Amino acid sequence: MLPPEDGVREACAKALGREFLRDHPQLEFRRRDNAWGLAIKAALRGLRDIRDGAVQLAYAAAAPGAPARLGLVLLRPPVSVERLRKEWDDFRRVLAPELGRKLHLVTLGEGRGAVMPPHPERERLAENLRPAFGGVRSETAPAVPKMPSEKFFAVFAFLLARWLRDPAPVSVKALLGGTGASYTSVSNALARLRDAGEVSRRRNGDVELPGFPWSTWREVTAVLQPLRASRGYRDGSGRGLRPSTLLPALRKLGATGVGVGGVSAANRRDPHFDLHGLPRLDLTVHGGRGLDELARSLNASLRPAEPGAPDAILALHPLNRRASLFEPDAKKGFAWADDVETLLDLTELKLLDQADALIHLLVKRGAP
Questions:
Q1: Which of 140, 159, 177 is the last residue of a domain?
Q2: Are residues 91 and 18 located together in one domain of the fold?
Q3: Cα-Cα-Cα-Cα dihedral sign, residues 15, 19, 25, 26
Q4: In this structure, what are the phi and psi dihedrals at residue 72, rounded to the nearest 5 degrees?
Q5: Which of 20, 211, 221, 230 could be a cystine partner for 16, CB 3.0 to 4.6 Å?
Q6: Residue 212 structural domain
Q7: Sheet holding 29-31, edge to edge
Q8: pTM above 0.85?
Q9: What is the pLDDT of residue 139?
Q10: Which pLDDT does position 339 carry in this prediction?
Q11: Which residues, 6 or more positions from 334, have their beta carbon under 8 angstroms from its beta carbon?
Q12: How many domains does the chain contain in total?
């Protein structure tokens, strides 16, 4: 909802003009001819708040006598426009078509903003509304960073990997020891997760995940490359080097601090994994040093490639935390990366359906 300041409400009413009324129990504004209704959301903390607003808007749209079209207006959303566009498209697809067509998303940020799907009248109203939010006090903005930081990502990934392996609560001491992060970094990460409703604390201070943290997972995977700093490598020989030939080379190399992830690890965790063949070999490197040297040791013809390049046959992912959580496999002659690293690899490969299916499988296996 709008902040409580009457000045902001009045400014919005003035920007919209006399044709808009404030007489709807679920909407801030409704046009007199009932052609449009607006719900305006400020002080957003993350995707959870945005999704809640979308669900409320859908309920308002389905109610008897609802406006013909409705718009959800977000003030300074803490999520990129690209991510919001995908979330909005996914949300509208799960609704009945006649209901989904009624809904629009409007973002008002530091730039011009966006209207999804595009609509000339919504775009004009968005421009009219923008100055009305100059009176919103700074303390109404989210108290957490808009985008996940590398420090947050390290704590989150370790906590989630521990939870997928064992859903029992974990102590803050274990988080400090496993990540090597400072107490402040761990506390800030837990505060962000708590604000998102995705962790709880027991009386003894232990941290508990009540379920898979889907909202934070979506936020993190939307900005994966800068958080992960993965490196890709392509075949520079032109002889059609296959990713599968790199696994025997890894076994022969006997490198320590390297975990096999990606499709190879997913197939190990789920024999019915929905993908044939190996598009690339994903390796997590504990400590994250000597990546180019490792690639050359696996095959001298490997050359650096752009992150996510379609011709990359090898991806190396630095893991900068104290505990790797790798699982040694004496029979294979190498170690496996943890569940989270494997899921992140699948996400980088754009195997999103397969990643979600594996998440559900892992959660089901770890359920008490």
A1: 140
A2: yes
A3: negative
A4: -100, 115
A5: 20
A6: 150-224
A7: 20-21, 29-31, 36-41, 69-75, 103-108, 114-116
A8: no
A9: 37
A10: 97
A11: 247, 250, 251, 258, 259, 260
A12: 3
DSSP 338: P
The CA–CA distances, whole Å, from 52 to 77, 85, 207, 221, 253 equal: 13, 16, 25, 20, 51
Residue 56 has a CB neighbour count (10 Å cut-off) of 16
Does residue 328 sit in helix, strand or coil?
A: strand
Angle among Cα 364, 365, 367 to the nearest 5 degrees reads 65
Q: How far apart are CA 153 and CA 143, in angstroms?
A: 17
Give 351's contacts (C-beta < 8 A, 6+ positions apart): 263, 275
pLDDT tens-digit series, residues 181-233: 999 999 999 999 988 889 998 989 899 999 999 989 988 998 888 899 999 99
Residue 274 has what pLDDT? 77
How much helix, strand and coil, in percent to the nearest 5, is found in the chain? 45, 15, 40
Residues 32 and 113 occupy one common structural domain: yes
- Residues of the chain below pLDDT 50: 4-6, 135-145
- Lookup: tokens for 63: 């109610």
Give the helix ranges, DSSP H, for 63-80: none
Contact in structure between 161 and 179 (CB atoms under 8 Å)? no
Rounded-to-integer distance, Cα 78 and Cα 142, Å: 8
Domain shared by 10 and 127, yes or no: yes
**120 and 31: one domain?**
yes
Count the alpha carbons within 13 Å of 126 in the hemisphere toward its beta carbon. 25
In angstroms, rounded to a whole number, what is the distance separating the alpha carbons of residues 207 and 194?
Answer: 10
CA nearest to 71, candidates 79, 61, 63, 62: 61
Instruction: Measure CA 195 to chain center.
Output: 16
